[in-house]
């Protein structure tokens, strides 16, 4: 292990995980502003025509829009408070769905317009998601938890096939798979090494876990959290000393902590 870490000096493609909640809070505030403006425009513009159909229609339409806007604003405020305080505030984890389904796509769009690197938004999202999932305080039995690893974590020249059965690993120490099998045995939790998102989704569908600990890059973790929702996912970012998709690694203590958060 020591020898392997010493080799990892990082590469130009190896991006440090430095999630900043400020990015997320800024975008969230911007989203809230857009919700207010959009709500008003959606009410005002058709109202001019709706009144010709029935005099009460603009009011009905306005009330419906106001309720929708209010739900989204409460979601944004609840999430913001949870982010600022660093803990669950008034069941803010309930807003995880609004965050994943509504705010994240909107933030990605706004981030693109404002030229905020996608990676930064994804890192922030992963951090906030983990905080909300931990804030749920839900505990699960080991057999109901699934650990998903990307195939690129395996030592590139290892000839052993671990994607079919991770127990094929002989624990030679050239990659973290051996340590992860040890974790899997220690806690009695299923470990799966996936060759891609589709295979990972199929595994989740077949096993039907109650909670997931996932290791991958920002992009795959973000899409994985979205796909797995409403399942709680604690996402652990991989290490990329040689860049993406090759010779990646993971901090075993991060995986251990994620497991403990679910086990209690
Ligand atoms: S730890 Fe397991 S998977 Fe990794 S190189 Fe050794 S035998 Fe292969």
The dominant shape is elongated
Bound molecules: iron/sulfur cluster
What is the beta-strand fraction? 5-15%
Point out poorly predicted stretches.
1-15
Q: Note the total helix count.
A: 9
SSE series = HHHHHEHEHEHEH
Our count of domains comes out at 2
Q: Based on the structure, what is the oligomeric state of the protein chains?
A: single chain
Question: Short description, anyone?
Answer:
This protein has 264 residues and is α/β, with parallel strands linked by helices. The protein contains 9 helices and 4 strands; from the N terminus they run αααααβαβαβαβα. The structure holds iron/sulfur cluster.
Describe the structure.
By secondary structure, the chain is α/β, with parallel strands linked by helices. Helix content is 57%, strand content 8%. The chain has 2 domains: 21-135, no CATH class; 139-263, 3-Layer(aba) Sandwich (Rossmann fold). Strands 2-1-3-4 form a 4-stranded parallel beta sheet, sandwiched between helices. The radius of gyration is 22 Å and the shape is elongated. The relative contact order is 0.13. Mean pLDDT is 85; it is low at 1-15. Bound molecules: iron/sulfur cluster. Iron/sulfur cluster binds next to α6.
């Amino acid at each position: 292990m020591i020898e392997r870490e010493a080799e990892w000096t990082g590469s130009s493609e190896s991006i440090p995980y430095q999630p900043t909640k400020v990015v997320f809070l800024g975008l969230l505030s911007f989203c809230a502003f857009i919700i207010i403006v959009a709500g008003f425009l959606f009410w005002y513009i058709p109202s001019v025509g709706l009144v010709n159909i029935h005099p009460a229609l603009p009011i009905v339409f306005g009330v419906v829009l106001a309720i929708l806007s209010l739900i989204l604003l409460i979601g944004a405020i609840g999430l913001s408070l949870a982010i600022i305080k660093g803990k669950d505030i008034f069941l803010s984890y309930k807003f995880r769905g609004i965050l994943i389904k509504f705010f994240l796509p909107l933030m990605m769009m706004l981030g693109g317009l404002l030229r905020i690197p996608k990676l930064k938004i994804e890192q922030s999202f992963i951090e906030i998601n983990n905080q909300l999932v931990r804030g749920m305080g839900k505990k699960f039995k080991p057999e109901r938890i699934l650990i998903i690893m990307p195939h690129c974590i395996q030592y590139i020249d290892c000839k052993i096939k671990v994607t079919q059965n991770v127990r094929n690993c002989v624990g030679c120490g050239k990659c973290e798979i051996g340590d992860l099998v040890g974790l899997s045995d220690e806690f009695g939790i299923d470990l799966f090494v996936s060759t891609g998102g589709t295979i990972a989704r199929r595994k989740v569908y077949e096993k039907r876990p109650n909670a997931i600990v996932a290791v991958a890059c920002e992009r795959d973790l973000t899409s994985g959290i979205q796909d797995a929702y409403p399942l709680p996912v604690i996402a652990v970012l991989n290490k990329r000393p040689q860049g993406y998709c090759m010779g990646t690694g993971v901090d075993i203590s991060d995986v251990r902590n994620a497991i403990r958060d679910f086990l209690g």
